[in-house]
Design goal:
Radius of gyration: 21 Å
CATH topology of the largest domain: FAD/NAD(P)-binding domain
Number of domains: 3
Strand content: 15-25%
CATH architecture of the largest domain: 3-Layer(bba) Sandwich
Largest sheet: 7 strands, mixed
CATH superfamily of the largest domain: FAD/NAD(P)-binding domain
Helix content: 25-40%
Length: 480
């Protein structure tokens, strides 16, 4: 392939935002795992957090900082809310299919840790899928499907990436590479993420000497549908609780008060309360009895379909719930222009990146906003600084893609992170996790699993190094 201007790795909201906002005269290509494997954008139900008006921007920033438990980068949070307000207005003016009332005003929901209803939505609880499709229809750049197995880095520059497409490899040379490959949720055994979200690009970045930041800040969604037999746990949108759904025990008692919490507490605190209740007393449920069946099906079509798929019948009464890994606040360290630190020509956006905007606990529905905002920021930065790399060629990596121990190693990674780096952590257990993961490096694994393993190690290393129990990184006090 001839050298292009921009290679974008991924096909979710962040990737599509970057592709959409790049100037038409720039040569762009996207490479992604096959869409049938899924990406988190398609499963983003709640919506897009966005200030109601200019007067609400400061409140949105304040809510973001508060939810982030004092660990947000204040400038990044300001960029997120300020540019997010402008960007969503632009998309709305372009015809983005946001849900609206009879007067044409956008409908807004309230979600956890927001001080007011400001979450925009599309198609009820189908926001991610619908906004993703809206952008995809407007991106005219070619998309090829394969797996990125390496970055071409030399002398402080990134020159492109190596793609493996059904066992056939080639180097794609680009003046700029944008990593928008998503998080690493499928490295946990209980997750809302699709099975393909294995954090390989974070691992590649680490192996190539790039900094990973805040990897221990791993958010768990408090109300995943707790049904057996599913590797990917469907989440029950926070908007359900924003509209009155209650969290109860088997006797319909609202037990959250025992832990000093309520249905709209920040996700980290709510997840810990539900987790502790399940550990000590049994199951937890989301009480949906206050919803009319027809309203529920229209307002929450995804949740309606998921509940039915798992054998529950409308009118829904109680759905079993439990926390599940949901989102990575940490990732590849970037500056405010989405540039990977210390390397020319490489950017990271969306869940693959760590902008610092989310701190120790992401505010609900700030994820799609961040993906869109920093996708545009990356596009604007590239347009103003195209970074023409000198001509250079690399050999194609020949390390085996698969190894005989891949399945067993991935299973061990998932169990180790789930049990030792989960909702509630113990320092001794984290050190045991590090030893378990380190031992896996000697197994016969392929290059993709080796990259996922490096990401898993970074999560545990970051958790061990963290001095303070804060936000989504909660370590039992007696173990500190």
């Amino acid at each position: 392939m001839p050298q292009i201007d921009v290679l974008i790795i991924g096909s979710g909201a962040a990737a599509l935002s970057a592709a959409f906002f790049l100037p038409a005269n720039i040569r762009v290509a996207l490479v992604s795992k096959p869409r049938r494997l899924g990406c988190n954008t398609e499963f983003a139900q709640g919506g897009i957090a966005c200030a109601i008006d200019e007067n609400d921007i400061e409140s949105h920033i304040a809510d973001t900082l508060k939810a982030g438990a004092g660990r947000c980068d204040a400038e990044a949070a300001k960029i997120l809310a300020t540019k997010g307000f402008s960007l969503m207005k632009t998309l709305a003016d372009m015809g983005a299919p946001l849900d609206r009332d009879e007067n044409g005003a956008p409908l807004r929901a309230r979600e956890a840790a927001h001080s007011k209803p400001r979450v925009l939505r599309a198609g009820g609880d189908q926001t991610g899928a619908i906004i993703g499709e809206f952008l995809l229809e407007r991106v005219n750049h070619p998309i090829c499907f394969g797996e990125i197995v390496d970055l071409l880095i030399d002398g402080g520059r990134c020159y492109g990436a190596t793609i493996d497409e059904d066992g056939k490899r080639e180097n794609i040379y680009a003046h700029n590479v944008v990593i928008a490959s998503g998080g690493f949720g499928a490295l946990y055994d209980v997750t809302t993420n699709p099975p393909a979200i294995l954090g390989e690009l974070q691992g590649i970045a680490a192996l190539r000497g790039r900094k990973l930041s805040d990897m221990h800040f791993t958010q768990f969604h408090p109300t995943a549908l707790d049904m057996d037999g599913a590797a990917q746990k469907p989440l029950l949108s926070e908007a359900l609780r924003g509209e009155g759904a209650k969290i109860v025990d088997e006797n319909n008692r609202r037990f959250l008060e025992d832990y000093g919490e309520n249905e709209l507490s920040p996700r980290d605190r709510l997840s810990r309360a539900i987790f502790a209740h399940i550990e000590s007393s049994g199951r937890a449920y989301l009480d949906l009895s206050g919803f009319d069946s027809r309203y529920f099906a229209a307002r929450f079509p995804v949740a309606n379909r998921q509940l039915t798929l798992f054998g529950l019948k409308p009118p829904f009464r109680k759905a079993p719930i439990a926390p599940a890994f949901h989102y990575a606040m940490g990732g590849i360290a970037v500056d405010k222009n989405a540039r990977v630190l210390g390397l020319r020509g490489l950017y990271a956006i969306g869940e693959a990146a760590c902008t610092g905007a989310h701190g120790a606990n992401r505010l609900a529905s700030n994820s799609l906003l961040e993906a869109l905002v920093f996708g545009k920021i990356a596009a604007d930065t590239i347009a103003n600084d195209p970074n023409a790399n000198p001509a250079k060629t690399f050999g194609v990596l020949d390390e085996p893609r698969l190894g005989k121990d891949d399945d067993e190693v991935l299973s061990t990674i998932k169990k180790t992170l789930g049990r030792r780096a989960g909702v509630i952590r113990e320092r001794a257990s984290l050190k045991q996790a590090a030893a378990i993961l380190d031992a896996l490096t000697d197994r016969e694994i392929g290059l993709l699993t080796r990259r996922s393993l490096r990401t898993a190690q970074a999560i545990v290393e970051s958790a061990i190094e963290a001095e303070e129990s804060v936000g989504a990184h909660y370590v039992k006090e007696e173990s500190l």
